Amino acid sequence: MKSKKLEIDYLWSRQLILWGVNGQTKLGKSRILIAGAGAIGNEAAKNLTMLGIRKFTIVDYDKVEISNLSRMVFFDKSDAGKPKSKVLAKKLHKKYPHMEITAIQGKLENLPLEVYLDSNLIVSGLDNFASRFFLTSISRRYLIPLVDGGITGYQCRVQSYVP
């Protein structure tokens, strides 16, 4: 009888007890759209990467400002004036070279529909109500799960829509 070779990716081996090999494989094959590369986008990208998600599209129209540095773990002074999405993608890829990251500097409303349809999940960390509303409509129309977070001062709100 021929035995099967067991192959384990030790980078995420501790998580196998949570959701098993099949669950970890699903995470690795997921594609996440991160809308907003600011404070919430930085943390979401970091934590989802540490879970084993390898494919991201990061979208933001804004540039890094010095006032962002205290809240955004991947940005430093040398990044000031550079596009947030591209800086975040570059720094994530440097730390986690196995990642497949697409950075888009621009508005969500201008993205081709395929960007949304290729996503298994949308994570929103936007401070723009109109764009958040737009993402909610995309999520509902095309049945893409959405996790939306926002921060004002010391208050935070997180909501999710799972079709």
Write the layout of secondary structure elements.
Layout: H1 16-29, E1 31-35, H2 39-51, E2 55-60, H3 84-95, E3 100-105, H4 113-117, E4 121-124, H5 129-142, E5 146-152, E6 155-161
Parallel strand pairs: 1-2, 1-4, 2-3, 4-5
Antiparallel strand pairs: 5-6
Explain what this protein looks like in three dimensions.
It is a single chain. The protein is α/β, with parallel strands linked by helices and 163 residues long. 36% of the residues lie in helices and 21% in strands. It is built from five helices and six strands, in the order H-E-H-E-H-E-H-E-H-E-E. It has helices at residues 16-29, 39-51, 84-95, 113-117, 129-142, and strands at residues 31-35, 55-60, 100-105, 121-124, 146-152, 155-161. A six-stranded mixed sheet has the order 3-2-1-4-5-6, sandwiched between helices. The model has no long low-confidence stretch (mean pLDDT 90).
> How far from one another are the termini?
45 Å
Query: What is the CA-based Rg, rounded?
Result: 17 Å
- Categorize the overall geometry: globular
Q: How many individual helices?
A: 5
Q: State the strand order across the main sheet.
A: 3-2-1-4-5-6
SS elements, strand count = 6
Instruction: Outline the low-pLDDT stretches.
Output: none
Label the structural class: alpha/beta
Mean pLDDT, all residues: 90
Could you give the order of the helices and strands? HEHEHEHEHEE
Per DSSP, what share of the residues sits in E-state strands of 2 or more residues? 15-25%
Tell me roughly what share of residues is in helical segments: 25-40%
Biggest β-sheet description: 6 strands, mixed
